[in-house]
Amino acid sequence: MSSAVEAMSCAKADIPAGPEEAAAAAAKSAVEHGDGAASAANGKCGEAAPHCRKDAEDEEDDEDEKVPEVIDLGPRVSIKEQLEKDKDDESLRRWKEQLLGSVDLNSVGETLEPDVKIMSLSILSPGRPDIFLPLPVEPNAKGVWFTLKEGSPYRLKFTFSVSNNIVSGLRYTNTVWKTGIKVDKAKEMLGTFSPQLEPYTYVTPEDTTPSGMFARGSYSARTKFLDDDRKCYLEINYTFDIRREWPSTC
User: Fold this and answer.
1) Distance, CA of 93 to CA of 72 (rounded, Å)
2) 10 Å Cβ neighbour count for 25?
3) 38: DSSP letter
4) Bridge pairing between strands 167-178 and 146-149
5) Cα 81 to Cα 94: distance, rounded to the nearest angstrom
6) pLDDT digits (tens, 9 = 90+) for 50-77
7) Which of 11, 38, 125, 192 could serve as 30's disulfide partner, Cβ 3.0–4.6 Å?
8) Model-level pTM?
């Protein structure tokens, strides 16, 4: 991904011959364009001028995102405590059931922190057997985790469980490097999930592996599963290959 840096000036390059001409030019600019243009003519960046503000898209989206400002919503309580409150009020009970979904009481606890376990990861490609990636990944494991064919459509499938409390804003991020250069970064918002006995399954939208002579080769990658509080439930560092053909299944 590349970005163009555009050089912009808040003041004119041409300087009027005298102070009277400068004042006249500034007054004319103010009438035609408003105070923002007048400030520009005086060589200052007015706050109302859009080109004087740095666009957020020009900033690099690095791995360490800024933690969003947290709004204080009052004391947090566990789901179990929430469910036990006003349990004799039928209308409140039905409202909580609708809000929380099919929460399994055996999957909730006294703790305020949710517990998310990534149970399985797999790669789905039409006409090919599913590629099941072994979990947990051994620390400092060497070797290629999987191999994909260039120009092939694929989807990622995640299976995970949630217990103790609701997990908010669960998301998947994947950063890919080739020869030490970052070539791709993907983010996928999975959603907000309440505790239940049955595992959840999520399948990403279809994507296509790159193709061509420069796309083939070995890659390194880092995958993370995080929530809105940036709590990391799984981080995997691995390598994979993109080749001209699929590897033999024999």
Assistant:
1) 25
2) 14
3) H
4) unpaired
5) 16
6) 333 343 433 444 444 554 555 554 566 6
7) 38
8) 0.63
